[in-house]
Amino acid sequence: MTRFRHRGNRDQDRSATAVRINHVHRGGATVLGGFLWAFAILGFVHRLPLLSTSGRVFGLSTNGALSTISLVVGAVLLGSAVRGGRSASTVTTSVGVLFLLSGLVHLAIINTSLNVLSFRLPNVFFSLAAGLLLLGVGAYGRLSGAKPPGNPYRRPPAADTAPHDDPELSDAEQAVAAGTATLEQQRHIHADALQRQTREYDQAWETFVHDHSPEEVTVMRQQEQRESAYPERASDRSNPSN
């Protein structure tokens, strides 16, 4: 039971990591998407002309064109949050880059006739700040070099198929096959088998976490915890002839 308990704790940590990253990505997309929708709707409520220069919402200048763009971008962010963490991460990163570019471009054209979206300095500052925030949210847990187990962006490890260069283990295997193995050799074989089983289990979990949503990972973890509490039931299912 100790092995199952440690395994359950490890699975719980992995699931918690995946859920936390998923919530950050979806939460960031939802918050900014909701703000942009509120900004756009208030602009429409005020019935601002398409290229007006006098509209104000939340202290930011706006017009009909900017309200329309905000509505579309907000819908994209909210849609990505609904689809899941991976979509939200990709969309928030992309929109963050666009916000940064928009802030820099409008800073250069702010006092020219090219400023058709009625940007002022508060708009520029907001665009730059929102861009940095979105980049941070989108990159959270995704761009770090060393990703912990459970991170949905961690690549699943390659299967460990290379033969082990262990002369003692090779001799022990031959002795077991010949029926002349000592007690120490049998223990060596047993310890190696446990290590292989643990590695295979960890690789299988990494692959499952990588390919499934946090909700599916949680369901699988709960199912395995139930089976670990009653290992004889899992054994019965795997051996129907018994």
Could you describe the 3D structure shown?
It is built from 8 helices and 2 strands, in the order αββααααααα. It has a domain at 22-139. The model is unreliable at 1-8 and 159-163 (pLDDT under 50). A hairpin with a 2-residue loop joins β1 and β2. 71% of the residues lie in helices and 2% in strands. It has helices at residues 2-45, 64-83, 85-109, 121-139, 167-178, 183-211, 214-229, 231-238, and strands at residues 55-57, 60-62. It has a two-stranded antiparallel sheet. It has 242 residues and is mostly helical.
Short account of what is shown:
With 242 residues, this protein is an all-alpha fold. Helix content is 71%, strand content 2%.
Please report the total strand number as a whole number.
2
Helix content: over 70%
Straight-line N-to-C gap: 23 Å
Taking pLDDT < 50 over at least 5 consecutive residues as the criterion, the unreliable ranges are 1-8, 159-163
Structural class: mainly alpha
Set out the fold topology.
Elements: H1 2-45, E1 55-57, E2 60-62, H2 64-83, H3 85-109, H4 121-139, H5 167-178, H6 183-211, H7 214-229, H8 231-238
Helix pairs in contact: 1-2, 1-3, 1-4, 1-7, 2-3, 3-4, 5-6
Which descriptors would you attach to this protein?
242 residues, mainly alpha, 8 helices, 71% helix, elongated, disordered N terminus
